[in-house]
Design goal:
GO terms for molecular function: hydrolase activity. This protein is 33% helix and 15% strand. By secondary structure, it is of the alpha/beta class.
């Protein structure tokens, strides 16, 4: 199965370099995506541009692909399910929850000169970054790509209720499935609350398991694809 890999903010397709070989060894075809504005040098990119790139990859897949969205890109994976409900086999969301209709995609941190740079580690201290050593943090900082404001402040538009019938797997890295279920029950994720087929996978890691637990993450993605 084709497994489309969409990394979160500040990351390009190379974020999956340690995961992709493991997926290949497990019999799948990983397709890491470098999104417009996050690795291709297009500072004027918009959320629509990024979604178009994801949908192009979905349409190019020979069958129904597994669409994987990490962190903020959980919303991109869900937007793909909304735009191609008949084409997406399953959406896998790693450490992120899809934004509801009408919400900004990822307007989390301050922008400078039309982009949102990596804000440093202070907002991510604790469970998010506990398993990142100094070398991993330095590598992340040195390769982090500022995200265009047209992406972060782009408004999510969801139009097809058939998305709720697309199977969803929520991979829980820095939080537990029990916590995720509680948040959803409390109304924190109205989209996942309406998902017809929602399952959970626990992964003992921080927020960036592609860096700290690539083999375990690959096995989880392969299991999602095989099921």
């Amino acid at each position: 199965m084709d497994i489309l890999l969409i990394a979160g903010l500040w990351l390009d397709g190379s974020a999956w370099d340690d995961v992709a070989p493991e997926l290949t060894a497990l019999g799948h075809r990983p397709v890491p995506l470098t999104l417009p504005g996050q690795g291709d040098g297009t500072a004027s990119a918009t959320l629509d541009d990024q979604l178009a790139a994801v949908l192009a990859a979905v349409d190019a897949a020979p069958g129904k692909p597994l669409v994987v969205g990490h962190s903020a890109a959980a919303s991109l994976a869900w937007l793909a399910a909304d735009a191609r409900p008949e084409k997406v086999a399953k959406a896998v969301l790693i450490g992120g929850f899809p934004a509801p209709d009408g919400r900004a995609y990822a307007d989390y941190f301050a922008t400078e000169d039309g982009v949102m740079p990596f804000p440093g580690w202070a907002p991510f201290e604790g469970a998010d970054s506990a398993d990142l050593d100094e070398e991993a943090r330095h590598r992340f900082e040195s390769t982090a790509v500022p995200v265009p404001e047209g992406v972060t402040k782009g408004v999510v538009h969801l139009t097809d209720e058939r998305r709720f019938d697309v199977p969803v797997v929520l991979v829980c890295p820095e939080f537990t499935p029990a916590q995720a279920k509680e948040w959803i029950a409390d109304g924190d994720s109205p989209e996942l609350a309406r998902a017809t087929h929602l399952s959970y996978m626990d992964l003992d890691s921080g927020h960036w398991p592609m860096t700290t637990r690539p083999r375990e993450l690959a096995r989880a993605l392969a299991e999602a694809a095989d099921s």
